[in-house]
Design goal:
The protein is an alpha+beta fold. The chain folds into 3 domains: 59 residues, no CATH class; 78 residues, Helix Hairpins, CATH 1.10.287; 147 residues, Histidine kinase-like ATPase, C-terminal domain (Heat Shock Protein 90). The chain is built from 8 helices and 11 strands. The strands form 3 sheets. The protein has a 5-stranded mixed beta sheet. It has a 4-stranded antiparallel beta sheet with strand order 2-1-3-4. It has a two-stranded antiparallel sheet with strand order 5-7. The N and C termini lie far apart (85 Å).
Length: 337
């Protein structure tokens, strides 16, 4: 008789109902079918199994009892392997939890650093800058007529640079705040919000001679009011700002329903966005034009992207047919009364 290890490593087994007088042809089965072999042997009590190696060399025979022993050994080995895999899975899960905890702690530390940085900007930098801008303005106003033209030009540059830094600090604070603060969703009457944004920017739009077209009605949406107000304000401001010199801004606020979502499009006929720069639009501090051509901090669209994501919405860009830009925002429609 062959041993159990030989049966387990054999490439095939051949079953005979009788080794000497069988009239049945031998059946060849892979060793993986040992349960089938045992069943056939059970049906034929006198059956015997011949075992062959990979090169079809006969090296022994096995009885039914030995074969069942092999099956039991294989079952035990399979159970051991499953237990080993379960142990490794538990270790991997524990390590993953530890990694998540580590990353969470790191993220929390980064957020705390951003809060400290924002506080520093607000108190340590903004106040001195405001004083510098104020004093430069006072000198220009009170002594401008007696100062040389070169000095007056320097004072104007001081005011312009200071105001730019104050605006940058304000935008950084807003970006940090919207990035870390929860954005509770509420029902927003979009028609009211559009009207209030237009009223807030009325003077700026009038100074530029902007023509703004609106739809008759806008469906209510689910969002965060103050953040959505600033997002729409940023898009409206950009649409009126990024136009060719001496061109009158032409802006349209169009609304479309896409399934359960409401898409608000801010369309303009301005200078548009070059194809190679479109992937940079919503990145922080991304400026597509020289500061002397168009002012700004490069944070308006980055704020809009984060704010829309935080309130469960979307934002995107597409070129306008015929020239110009289309920035759109999407939010779920609110069906609540």
């Amino acid at each position: 008789m062959v041993g159990l290890q030989e049966v387990a490593s054999a490439s095939s087994v051949r079953i005979f109902s009788d080794l000497v007088t069988s009239e049945l042809p031998p059946r060849v089965l892979p060793t993986a079918s040992l349960s089938t072999v045992a069943q056939i042997m059970g049906d034929k009590p006198g059956a015997t199994v011949l075992v062959y190696d990979d090169e079809e060399h006969y090296f022994g025979l096995v009885t039914k009892d030995s074969l069942l022993g092999v099956m039991l050994a294989e079952q035990i080995a399979l159970t051991d392997e499953l237990e080993r895999m379960a142990g490794e899975k538990a270790k991997a899960a524990q390590r993953l939890e530890e990694m998540v905890a580590e990353r969470t702690a790191e993220l929390r530390a980064v957020v705390e650093e951003m809060e400290v940085f924002s506080y520093s900007l607000s108190h340590d930098l903004r106040a001195p800058l405001l004083r510098i801008v104020t004093y430069a303005g006072m000198i220009s106003a009170e002594h401008g007529d007696t100062l040389p033209a070169e000095v007056r030009a320097h004072l104007k540059r001081i005011e312009a640079s200071g105001n730019h830094l104050v605006t940058l600090i304000r935008d950084i604070q807003a970006f940090v705040q919207v990035s870390k603060s929860p954005q509770p969703v509420q029902r927003i009457v979009l028609s009211t919000l559009v009207r209030e944004v237009l009223e807030t920017y009325r003077t700026f739009l009038a100074e530029r001679g902007a023509l703004v077209e609106t739809d008759d009605d806008y469906p209510p949406v689910k969002g965060q009011y103050s953040s959505l107000f600033q997002v729409l304000g940023n898009l409206l401001y950009n649409a009126a700002k990024f136009v060719a010199p001496h061109q009158r801004p032409h802006i349209a606020l169009r609304v479309h329903k896409i399934g359960d979502w409401v898409r608000l499009r801010v369309e303009d006929k301005g200078i548009g966005v070059p194809d190679e720069a479109q992937d940079k639009l919503f990145k922080p501090f991304s400026r597509l034009h020289a500061p002397e051509s168009y002012d700004g901090t490069g944070l308006g669209l980055a704020f809009a992207r984060v704010a829309m994501q935080r309130m469960g919405g979307r934002i995107g860009y597409e070129p306008r047919l015929g020239g110009g830009s289309v920035f759109w925002i999407e939010l779920p429609e609110s069906t609540q009364p």
